[in-house]
Amino acid sequence: MLIGVVIGSTRKPRCCPQIAEFIVHTIKNSLTYKQLEEKPELRLVDIDDWNLPLYNESKIPSQVQNYQDYDHEHTRQWSLEIQKYNAFIFVAPQYNWGYPAALKNALDYLFNEWRAKPAAVVSYGGHGGIKCSEQLRVVLQGLRMIPTENKVLLSFADRSVLTKATIGSPMNLLESPESSFAAEEVAQIETTFSELCQLMKKKTEP
Ligand SMILES: Cc1cc2nc3c(=O)[nH]c(=O)nc-3n(C[C@H](O)[C@H](O)[C@H](O)COP(=O)(O)O)c2cc1C
């Protein structure tokens, strides 16, 4: 089982990679993960690495059954990448009450590659990025993914954390997450991961 942990912002500098790594670290150290008989691999997928242009395919992705039918090589490669994963954790900041355009663009390129796969959302921002989370969840449903009911909302503890995040300076999340986020928010990571595992298990059952 392979879970893609999607890094949902692309600006430079940014804090999203630090938060995504913190999510992976927290999951791997959780009781839920340790007790799994078959441990899924968690792999970072940084949409910035893909450098996708603004959507430029001629077809509607839901009507493309074979990845070779996409017009462009960047889409074929992106399709092959996303086909590899059984489930996803989307990590995204709130931008102006929504989620980053680069993430929407990366999602819109494909359809069948996302379809029927369990997905969880981790959002962050001044107040946890609830609007980002809700909007992203609706889009994941539109892609016919299976989103978890639980979500992770990470609120920046104060203005200094927001400033640090915005300039991409180290947030020291692995050593002291409590200096940036509240303990109950961090606890949501395990609850949400646990639900994601249940959804993945349900899919493999006959
Ligand atoms: C274009 C833009 C819009 C933003 N809008 C919001 C917002 O609506 N709510 C919020 O809490 N923070 C907002 N922020 C602050 C971000 O939460 C913060 O800058 C964070 O570091 C962004 O994640 P990133 O570093 O991975 O890009 C915004 C930041 C940017 C760059």
From TrEMBL:
Source organism superkingdom: Eukaryota
Protein name per the record: LALA0S12e01156g1_1
SUPFAM superfamilies, A to Z: Flavoproteins
Pfam families: FMN_red
Gene Ontology, cellular component aspect: cytosol; nucleus
Organism expressing this protein natively: Lachancea lanzarotensis
InterPro entries with a match to the protein in the record: Flavoprotein-like_sf, FMN_Rdtase-like_dom, NAD(P)H-dep_reductase
GO molecular function, a single term: NAD(P)H dehydrogenase (quinone) activity
Gene3D superfamilies associated with the record: 3.40.50.360
GO annotation terms (biological process): apoptotic process; cellular response to oxidative stress
Residue ranges annotated for the NADPH-dependent FMN reductase-like domain, each copy included: 1-155
